[in-house]
Amino acid sequence: MDTNKILIAADGSENAERAIDYVTDILQGAAGFHIKLLSIEHLPDRDFFADDTAWKDACVKNREKLIAFLAHGKERLTKSGIPEKQVQTDYVESCHSPLAEKPDYCSRGTSIALDILHVAKTERFKTVVIGRRGVSKAEEFMFGSVSNRIIHAGSDCTIWVVQ
Amino acid sequence: MSETVKQILDRLYPDGYLGRLGKVYTDTSDFMRITGGDVIVLAGEHYLVLRDEVERSFGVEDPKYWVKRCRHLESGERRILKLVFYETFSLSMGDMKIPCYRSPRKEARILDLVRNDPRFMQGFPAADEAGNNVRVLYVVQGKRLDNWIDDLDVDHPTYFQTHLPGILEKFIVSCQAINDLHKMGEKHGDIRRDHLWVTYDTGDYVWIDFDYTFNFHENPFGLDIFGLGGLLLYIVGKGFYSHEEVRQLIDRNRKIPAIEPEDFLLVFKNRLANLQKIFPYIPDAVNQMLLHFSSGSRVYYETMDEFLQDLTTCLKQVK
């Protein structure tokens, strides 16, 4: 059992920041933990842009923002005393990204929750941490909820939902 | 020198009456200026503008300046031209505001995907001289489904027994069309009562207007499914029933079980979803399906496959 492996879903939101804060507080620099900060690339909708050049620019900005968020999260964890080599960051590219670098695994864009669980399963993370937005019932129906889907679809791991 | 409107009409539409001779447009960017009597030229074809399209709801007329009712001068047939208009706005659904975007490229792409599929409006994208992605649409010869149902002059029990099975059968075909769209990675985006039409010739149903898009990543098709739920409610009920209408039924000495807030739709809280309470002959499978969209529901449809499976059961129960 890799109970010392913790996967934090980090989408650049305040909820993800709370999840990182929570892990930082609870571990308090304790030794022996391996943490991965994971972002799944969520492309801006191509149809929101008049042409592909504008869309690609938005994709670049989106990526830069998330990679900066991951770096910032890593810094917070290491400052709390967790050795740097025990904190990883990972950015899973979208299969439809115009900046594609042909990774082994890419997100098909149909469910961020299932992408997160895929990484947890293949890399044997036993704890998955996610921040929760706190959406209404109607919003959940319409837009879906990553945290709820993780709760329902996750198996063989512990899930921390940080409110 | 390029032709004037008069010269074009003399050549292509000599017997047509026109009150105003306007201008010839090959660039449609400034669509507000283009009006009745103007001619739009796209890929060498001529479209005489008759008027702006108007959307009518709740007795209010809302002109859509970027949508032009036209006559295609080469064929003499009517066409609708949707000119490029980028618009970001909030779609109100109950208490929610959903950021929404009008996307010409999405609609153009879907028109290509559904070409020759009679379940969808037909047309094609054509770029004007400035590269604007204009959609040339064939007019659906028919009537909005909700108006068609409204015009059936029968009471609900008669409607339920006589008309509903046939309507449900055709509605299933329309839902399969949406499922096929989803499987191609596309969403309709604006499923509502006035976007499903009944054709005069075949009586088949046709989806129109798919230029809305949203940025939902965890449940990309949720809004479409919710829209279909609302339509199903309308179809089964032969209309929507508000608190007031339920109260009127009670006043007419109808014995109706107590109506609770969870009996109404999750999003539109003034539309009764639990129709079995006012129409007790509605079969359980049908009512259960409607309740999936109610405030009291704890489970939702995530895919069209699930929705269609239940809808097929409903059809068996009403036949």
Question: Strands, helices and their partners?
Answer:
The complex is a heterodimer of chains A (163) and B (319).
Chain A: E1 5-9, H1 14-27, E2 34-40, H2 52-79, E3 87-92, H3 112-122, E4 127-131, H4 137-143, H5 146-153, E5 158-162
Parallel strand pairs in A: 1-2, 1-4, 2-3, 4-5
Chain B: H1 5-12, E1 24-25, E2 39-42, E3 45-57, E4 60-72, E5 78-82, E6 87-93, E7 96-102, H2 104-113, E8 123-127, E9 133-138, E10 142-144, H3 145-150, H4 156-183, E11 196-199, E12 205-207, E13 212-213, H5 222-237, H6 243-251, H7 284-291, H8 304-318
Parallel strand pairs in B: 1-2
Antiparallel strand pairs in B: 2-3, 3-4, 4-5, 5-9, 6-7, 7-13, 8-9, 10-11, 11-12
Helix pairs in contact in B: 4-5, 4-8
Tell me what you see in this structure:
The complex is a heterodimer of chains A (163) and B (319). Chain A has 163 residues and is α/β, with parallel strands linked by helices. Helix content of chain A is 42%, strand content 17%. The longest helix of chain A has 28 residues, at 52-79. Chain A starts with a strand and ends with a strand. Chain A has helices at residues 14-27, 52-79, 112-122, 137-143, 146-153, and strands spanning 5-9, 34-40, 87-92, 127-131, 158-162. Chain A has one domain (5-162): HUPs (Rossmann fold). In chain A, helix 1 (14-27) links the parallel strand 1 (5-9) and strand 2 (34-40). Chain A is globular. In chain A, helix 3 (112-122) crosses helix 5 (146-153). Chain B is an alpha+beta fold. Chain B has two domains: 5-83, Roll (SH3 type barrels), CATH 2.30.30; 142-318, Transferase(Phosphotransferase), domain 1. Chain B has eight helices and 13 strands. Chain B starts with a helix and ends with a helix. At the A-B interface, helix 4 of A face strand 7 and helix 5 of B. Chain A: It comes from Desulfotignum phosphitoxidans DSM 13687. Chain A: Belongs to the universal stress protein A family. Chain A: Residues 4-162 form the UspA domain. Chain A: This is Universal stress protein UspA.
